């Protein structure tokens, strides 16, 4: 797995490189300390994954990621940061980042890289816990029929995005719990998604 690391703290970058290259099959192709250099390195190497901080001088990681993804639609970008600001999470989701984890959880970096490499989205536990509140602040129904979703399915997707369990959704929508499970299975199949987390992210990116 070929990786580029971007962080304006050189100690963090070098430590992360050491951790990653301890594992067989992981190679760090380069290190950058700014958003501008991240774009240049990505164009030069087109790595499997770009691991990048968010807050950096001149050009943030979010700005760099947006420019990279506009050129390389399949770019896999994993944000590794100390910040959980709602606006950062929202932007990361909207531009199509594959992951968002916190620096204090260094032990999760290798599992996160493996997951992103295999095509999964990875968000730290703290980020997942924030998603319902972040999404509810920006909820606004639109275009759900464009995805083959009917109104009742959209109501269930919205409830999932708020972090409600099947039991809670059933109570809120006056449905049986088994019916809710069936609806969710159909929705996941329609949208070619794997689980509730991906469904919540899809809702935020496309239906909110």
Question: How would you describe this protein?
Answer:
It is a single chain. The chain has 208 residues and is of the alpha/beta class. It has 2 domains: 2-139, Response regulator (Rossmann fold); 144-207, Arc Repressor Mutant, subunit A, CATH 1.10.10. The protein is built from 10 helices and 6 strands. It has helices at residues 10-21, 35-45, 61-71, 86-95, 109-117, 125-137, 151-161, 166-173, 177-191, 196-207; strands at 2-6, 27-32, 49-52, 77-81, 99-102, 122-123. Helix 2 (35-45) packs parallel to helix 3 (61-71), helix 6 runs parallel beside helix 10 and helix 8 (166-173) packs across helix 9 (177-191). The longest helix has 15 residues, at 177-191. It is elongated and about 55 Å long. It starts with a strand and ends with a helix. The model has no long low-confidence stretch (mean pLDDT 87). Keywords: DNA-binding, Phosphoprotein. This is Response regulator of two-component system protein. InterPro entries: CheY-like_superfamily, NreC/VraR/RcsB-like_REC, Sig_transdc_resp-reg_C-effctor, Sig_transdc_resp-reg_receiver, Tscrpt_reg_LuxR_C, WalR-like.
């Amino acid at each position: 797995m070929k990786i580029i690391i971007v962080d304006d703290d050189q100690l963090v970058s070098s430590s992360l490189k050491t951790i990653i290259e301890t594992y067989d099959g992981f190679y760090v192709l380069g290190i950058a300390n700014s958003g501008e250099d991240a774009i240049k390195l990505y164009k030069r190497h087109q790595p499997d994954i770009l691991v990048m901080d968010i807050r950096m001088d001149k050009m943030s990681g979010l700005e760099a990621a947006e420019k990279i993804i506009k050129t390389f639609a399949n770019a896999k970008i994993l944000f590794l940061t100390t910040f959980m600001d709602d606006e950062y999470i929202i932007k990361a989701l909207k531009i199509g980042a594959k992951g968002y984890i916190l620096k204090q959880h260094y032990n999760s970096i290798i599992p996160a890289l493996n997951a992103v490499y295999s095509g999964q989205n990875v968000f730290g536990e703290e980020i997942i816990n924030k998603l319902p509140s972040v999404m509810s602040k920006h909820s606004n129904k639109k275009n759900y029929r464009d995805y083959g979703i009917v109104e009742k399915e959209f109501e269930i997707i919205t409830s999932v995005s708020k972090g409600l369990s099947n039991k809670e959704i059933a109570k809120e929508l006056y449905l049986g719990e088994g019916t809710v499970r069936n609806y969710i299975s159909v929705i996941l199949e329609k949208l070619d998604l794997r689980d509730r987390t991906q469904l919540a992210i899809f809702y935020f990116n496309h239906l909110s």
